[in-house]
Amino acid sequence: MSLLIGLYLCCLGLVIYTLFGFPLLTMVCGLLVRRPYQKADITPPVSLIICCFNEEQSIEAKLNNVLALDYPDHLLQVVVASDGSTDQTEAIVERFTSDRIHLLSLPRSGKATALNAAVQHATGEVLVFSDANSMYDANAIRELVKPFAEPNVGGVAGNQVYRKSYQEGSAAAGEHYYWDFDRWMKVWQSRSGNAISATGAIYAIRRSLFRTVPAGVTDDFVTSTRVIEQGYRLVFAPEAICYEPAAGNSKAEFGRKTRVITRGLRGVLMMRGLMNPFRYGFYSIQLCSHKVLRRLIVLPLLVMAVLNPLLWNAGLVFQLATIAEIAFLVAALAAPILSSLGLRPHKLLTIPSYICMVNAAVLVAIWNIVRGQRITVWNPSRGMPQAAGSR
Predict the structure, then answer these.
(1) Is 268 in a helix, a strand, or coil?
(2) CA-CA to 1 of 20 to 30 Å: which in 18, 28, 213, 247?
């Protein structure tokens, strides 16, 4: 019994650190250690890279959004790389082609190949990466390039905002709350040093720091963290805002999460050198806590879930934990059921549902890594874009 209790306490300590200790440590570090950087209203030549596959529902709105951006026309190049699209995506982009907007029609080979080809075609000093359904605020690129006035800043992560719409299922609400938390973390991380990584919807790096992206990894993670690997800072620009539709139904989101986490874990394995604290300091602790411990937290949680009922007779604490475990699972099941009935579940239900869905996707992703499966192509399952600023 004592051995089981000891194992349980070790798992509990790991969970508490990952969920509460690490965010608190990040906040304290952001308060005590300040590394300010220069910002200025600069307008370097920018190449906006958009990789897409079968985005006929989003690409026209995206390009109209791009044309409405507040950035000098002669300094903004747009490269749309179509990864073997079989719908009307390329025909739509061709209607917009000009000296500013370029279409690369590529055979189907995966996002990494399309991304690398697009960068080869790019001419800007700064590369901005975007998704086809990400709608930028008019001043998003201006805000994104301001930190490049600091020579030591090599990359800038933008602020991805999910619209407050819960009509597409409980996964949408859970995704929204997760990104609110992630945004808060990036603010503190950036104040004391580096944001851990960028999201593919909106980020920028210096052209000279780009390195070819290998297949089978999360390209935004690898590309943005390579900035840090090369000795430059990756900072967060909260005023550089883009809007995305939140996740759709839980079934579609589960498949997307599985793909993203599988590629993400491969990316972490590839960039594991960044977890050397003797070279990268506190950033290594942040990276390990955020990208490894938080993603793999399902493993100690599963151990605790199994041990809770086994330790029922060990005391009131384990009895309450077992009851809480059952209540959590009931809440997680209730959210998708209510959504399927056309009802809007409370966040007390959507958060458990989202957590369970993500952790199930992590287990599948771990199995993909163990058996050596690589995911090199992607099939987007997204909501329809809306005008920038619509929430």
Answers:
(1) helix
(2) 18
Integer Cα distance of 69 and 75 in angstroms: 12
The H-assigned helical ranges of the chain are 2-16, 22-32, 59-67, 89-94, 111-121, 140-145, 170-192, 219-229, 250-270, 277-280, 282-287, 298-310, 316-340, 347-370
Quote the pLDDT of residue 254. Answer: 83
pLDDT in the model for residue 320: 93
Other CB atoms closer than 10 Å to residue 150's CB: what's the count? 16
Do 116 and 222 contact (CB within 8 A), yes or no?
no
Among left, alpha and beta (phi > 0; psi -120 to 50; other), residue 21 is alpha
Domain ranges of the chain: 1-391
The C-alpha R_g of the chain, in whole angstroms, comes to 22
Mean pLDDT, to the nearest integer, of 340-367? 83
The pLDDT value given to residue 350: 77
In this structure, are strands 46-52 and 76-83 parallel, antiparallel, or unpaired?
A: parallel
126-130/46-52 β-pairing: parallel
What sign has the CA pseudo-torsion 251, 348, 175, 195?
A: negative
- pTM, two decimals, is 0.85
| The CATH number of domain 1-391, selected from 3.90.550.10, 3.30.70.2740, 3.30.70.141, 3.40.1360.10 | 3.90.550.10
Distance CA 278, CA 256 (A): 35
